[in-house]
């Protein structure tokens, strides 16, 4: 009656004035259980009801046997339900563990992907910095070359202008 424990209970019965059992000490029974016990369900139960109708007395041993059977059936039903609950609990626990493992794997995959992206970004940043330094070197080189070319061009222009002026003066002096 009390669950999964294997403790033994002592049950006592009392009969009222009409020889009908109304009190079972130590065990609580619902009205439906008492009604089922009163109904004939087996050949011995039918004999008991015939005996009860003919003599008007209740066979205490037979009633005790039926109550014990009902209690055993109730205990078996409760044990079965408890076993089902334990099995269901185990299944739920396995499912929870499985989903936790799945979630953990997904988190680890995401962390790995994030780390890979971070490393890629660092690599690209270093490549960009290297290209930037290279561009600055090229920029400085080309500015230096441009300055040299402008200087040479200016010198060439000056020399050419001087030569032109000199040639123009010579031509003018010849034709005067």
UniProtKB/TrEMBL annotation:
Residues 40-56 have a biased composition (Low complexity). InterPro entries: MIC19/MIC25 (IPR007964), MICOS_subunit_Mic19 (IPR052632). One of its GO terms (biological process) is inner mitochondrial membrane organization. It is a lipid-anchor. It is found in: Mitochondrion inner membrane. Keywords: Disulfide bond, Lipoprotein, Membrane, Mitochondrion, Mitochondrion inner membrane, Myristate. Residues 27-63 are annotated as: Disordered. GO terms for cellular component: MICOS complex. This is MIC19 protein.
């Amino acid at each position: 009656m009390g669950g999964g424990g294997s403790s033994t209970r002592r049950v006592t019965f009392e009969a009222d004035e009409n020889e009908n059992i109304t009190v079972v000490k130590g065990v609580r029974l619902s009205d439906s259980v008492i009604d089922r016990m009163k109904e004939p369900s087996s050949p011995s139960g039918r004999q008991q009801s015939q005996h009860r109708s003919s003599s008007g007395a209740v066979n205490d041993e037979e009633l005790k046997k039926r109550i014990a059977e009902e209690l055993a059936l109730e205990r078996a039903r409760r044990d079965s339900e408890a076993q089902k609950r334990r099995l269901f609990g185990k299944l739920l626990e396995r499912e929870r563990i499985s989903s936790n493992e799945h979630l953990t794997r997904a988190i680890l995959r995401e962390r790995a992907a994030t780390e890979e992206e971070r490393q890629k970004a660092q690599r690209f940043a270093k490549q960009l910095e290297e290209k930037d330094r290279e561009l600055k070197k090229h920029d400085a080189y080309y500015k230096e070359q441009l300055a040299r070319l402008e200087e040479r061009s200016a010198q060439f222009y000056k020399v050419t202008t001087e030569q032109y002026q000199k040639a123009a003066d010579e031509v003018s002096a010849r034709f005067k």
